[in-house]
């Protein structure tokens, strides 16, 4: 069937955040690998969060280097988290294996909010301090909010409250009246948006996304574009042969019906890239994200 065996002995997935985004993504990867018979033992998952993902990335570098059948979820938030929190370990110091998905960030308010459209919220963001919930420091969530404030010329008004993951941001906006709005990956809020308890005012993509009933920020006069990406990295010093075997397994999973249903149900966009190409791309992201955050004074 395959030129080379794509089946892994097992997989222990490290998540560097709390509940939500990365955790959901890692869980779905594990479930799809199991459903497709690409792991011989049940995959496992563990969470080490803190300091904008840098605690987990440093642990993975220090404790799992050279280990087989281990992976860590990485993404825009990992790269930004290392910059903002001055983390000692960059994603590129691990062995980047595959970029899997992109998804848009959504800016939402509660259904009973006075903000009916984006321009209403932007007016208050410009004129006074309002609390906005989002993911941890260094995430694309914080970057998006900071970028909006910069374009409004109101950086001094920013009051961004960071949570360890998208699940925290969702809990904040749903339960705490202090929050005027929240930002996270669209999937984080999709159930509440469908249920009518949250209203989405805009998404961060350059163009509209099929299946998402929302205008982009740009088409509403706020030209801020951020594509949130997620992927997988292996322990530092992983051999090329082991990296390539992992990529084979992930490549087979990616074209399976089980993963295609995840892509559809979670509003992910397939953005596959692997191996040396992905490694080079991560290094480019590290330069670009650091430069962008530095420009924002973060």
Describe the fold and architecture.
With 298 residues, the protein is an alpha/beta fold. It is built from ten helices and ten strands. Strand 5 (131-134), helix 5 and strand 6 form a beta-alpha-beta unit. The longest helix has 21 residues, at 275-295.
Q: For the terminal residues, how far apart are their CA atoms?
A: 50 Å
What level of helicity do the residues show?
40-55%
Q: Given the structure, what is the number of helices? A: 10
The secondary structure category is: alpha/beta
Cα gyration radius (Å): 19 Å
Order of helices and strands: EHEHEHEHEHEHEHEEHHEH
What portion of residues belong to β-strands? 15-25%
* Count of DSSP strands: 10
Q: Which stretches are poorly predicted, pLDDT < 50 over at least 5 residues?
A: none
Shape type = globular
Q: What's the average pLDDT?
A: 95
- Describe the main β-sheet briefly: 10 strands, mixed
Keywords:
ten-stranded mixed β-sheet, about 20% strand, about 40% helix, alpha/beta, about 300 residues, 10 helices
């Amino acid at each position: 069937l395959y030129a080379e065996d794509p089946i892994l002995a097992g997989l222990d997935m490290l998540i560097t955040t709390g509940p939500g985004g990365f955790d959901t993504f890692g869980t779905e990867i594990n479930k799809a690998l199991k459903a497709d018979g690409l792991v011989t033992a049940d995959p496992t998952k563990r969470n080490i969060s803190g300091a904008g993902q840098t605690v987990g990335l440093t642990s993975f570098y220090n404790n799992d280097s050279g280990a087989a059948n281990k992976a860590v979820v990485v993404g825009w938030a990992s790269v930004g988290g290392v910059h903002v929190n001055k983390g000692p370990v960059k994603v590129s110091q691990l062995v980047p294996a595959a970029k899997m998905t992109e998804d848009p960030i959504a800016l939402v308010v509660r259904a009973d909010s006075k903000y009916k459209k984006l321009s209403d919220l932007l007016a208050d963001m410009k004129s006074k301090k309002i609390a906005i919930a989002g993911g941890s420091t260094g995430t694309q969530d914080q970057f998006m909010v900071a970028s909006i404030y910069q374009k409004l010329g109101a950086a001094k008004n920013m009051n961004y409250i960071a949570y360890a993951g998208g699940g925290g941001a969702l809990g904040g906006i749903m339960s705490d009246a202090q929050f005027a709005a929240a930002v996270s990956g669209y999937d984080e809020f999709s159930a509440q948006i469908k249920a009518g308890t949250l209203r989405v005012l805009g998404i961060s993509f350059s163009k509209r996304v099929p299946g998402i009933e929302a205008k982009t920020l740009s088409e509403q006069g706020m030209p801020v574009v951020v594509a949130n990406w997620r992927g997988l990295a292996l322990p530092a010093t992983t051999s090329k042969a082991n990296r390539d075997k992992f990529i084979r397994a992930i490549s087979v999973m990616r074209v399976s019906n089980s993963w295609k249903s995840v892509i559809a149900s979670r509003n992910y966009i397939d953005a596959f890239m692997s191996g040396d190409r992905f490694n080079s791309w991560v290094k480019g992201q590290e330069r670009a994200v650091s430069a962008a955050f530095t420009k924002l004074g973060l």
